[in-house]
Amino acid sequence: MATVHWPGNEVARVPKRAHLIGVPFIMTGEEEFPDGINAFILERARGKVSALHGAAPRVRLRPLDREARRKIAYNLADLLTWGETERAHPTQGSIRWDQLKSWHILEMYQDALIRGYWSENFFRTKSPSPIAPETVRTKISHALGCFKWMADNGFVTNFDYEPALQTITLSKDACLLSYRRELQQAVTNSVPVAARAFRKSPGDQPLPTLPHLHAFFSALPTGPHRLIALQMFETGMRAMEVIENTLIPGRVHQRCMDRSKWHVHPSWSGQPLTLQWSLGDDRMIGVIPPLEMVEWKLRPGSGWDRRSSPGSGLDYGYQCDYRIIGKGPKVRLAHLPPKLLLAIWAYINGARRSGEGSAHVYLNRFQQKMSYHAVWEAFNAANHAIKSPLRLTPHVMRHAYACYFLEAAIIKAGQDRGYDRNSIPPEFILEHGSTVLLTIQSDLGHSEAKSTKKYLEQVAKGWIRMSAHQTWNQFLDEVQLDV
Q1: 15-24 long-range contacts, Cβ below 8 Å, gap at least 24?
Q2: Domains of the chain: total
């Protein structure tokens, strides 16, 4: 579910960012910032884009007031949520913001609004509630204006593309059938069934247990899908970061310079380049360490030193670390556990051999770079296979990494102090956990510490709650109340 956010007052202290005060921005359900859409909202709010199809104004316009800015942001967020919701368009799957086309908006999204299938009332009552024509026109106008502006400014490509008429007709029919199934299921079960795929905050649901994670990973297909999920859980990387930032050293690779697909570093030229692992060369961002380094580390009795290279006397830095580019775009270090890196290389030299031409590690069955939607579909299939009420998503993987990383660090530090797991005092959990948060903040790529503190709060609350309830149960046993 796409969400609307407002900049904090702290940006006012930075003169170059002062113009952002009062201008909302959007975050997608995959925790991605749709740069083109946020840029449109900013330019529209400042009066640099007219309301007429996103064109540049002929005369200087006055900046929009807060309510107008809010309306534009929420209308665009609603469109992105519709795009992310597979049930709203079954034949199209989940549609990323930069993959939306004009026919998606005019043929399917607008039709759902007019018929009342994409409205708050429908989600709540399971009864179609057509939206006022003026509201529909406003939503569609904002959507078309935004995407035409993005197309003119290079954020999206082929926005006006239209498939065959039969494809459009079949897609619309599938949409209506999906909505009507929701209605029928609600009538049959007398229970409202959500048509919209709301993304729950992982902090609002229990942390997946280790047996649950084992079952989930086992249910994923062997090969790229399972390795991607393991890499997210063991490193805290986002799904798109794993896909885009896992490149094979020694391959010739040409960077994609389309900023609407992924972030582009200023040092990239788009020219073919032979990849090499490096912690200092910005052109080599995303290239994983070579196989000989991880083999050296795992060799029994090798006397391995984390900062020394095997047998060469050269300083290779942190052998299992490599640099990635994430949201923002920000460049950070990611640490690959040695056994995971060995598994990745086993896949590269084994099942993946048929895709030798590509520098990307993770390929689909067509020998093309894996897509986010393919990962999402694999997660859905695994959740369905293990029949767990707690759904695991790419975002939950990052959350599980942070919580288990914290828990492992606190337990180890407690053991060094003579505590066992059940006797670690709350103040020690909070004190030591606060220091570990610095590592987690860096691993997750959070720009602000407050985004990472929620993980310590959840771990500490769970730890303290368990101890408190054990004490309470002992008290109840002692007082021996009659039942």
Answers
A1: 19/46, 22/66, 22/69, 23/69, 24/69, 24/70, 24/73
A2: 3
Q: Examine the domain organization and report whether 163 and 303 are in the same domain.
A: no
Q: Within 13 Å of residue 102, how many CA atoms lie on the same side as its CB?
A: 14
Strands, E assignment, 110-214:
none
Name the nearest CA neighbour of 128 among 60, 184, 63.
184
252 shares its domain with 184: no
Tens place of pLDDT per residue across the chain (483 aa):
788 888 754 444 434 454 566 788 898 877 778 889 999 999 888 888 876 555 555 555 678 888 888 899 999 999 999 998 888 888 888 888 988 999 999 999 999 899 888 887 776 666 777 888 888 999 999 999 999 999 999 899 889 988 889 888 998 888 888 888 877 776 665 444 444 444 555 556 788 999 999 999 999 998 899 999 999 999 999 998 999 999 999 999 998 887 656 778 888 888 899 999 999 999 999 999 998 877 665 555 444 444 334 444 333 434 589 999 987 678 999 999 988 999 999 999 888 876 667 899 999 887 888 888 789 889 988 998 998 888 898 989 999 999 999 999 999 999 998 988 878 888 888 888 888 888 898 898 887 777 788 888 888 887 777 777 778 888 888 887 765
Domain extent at residue 41: 3-189
Residues 374 and 444 in one domain: no
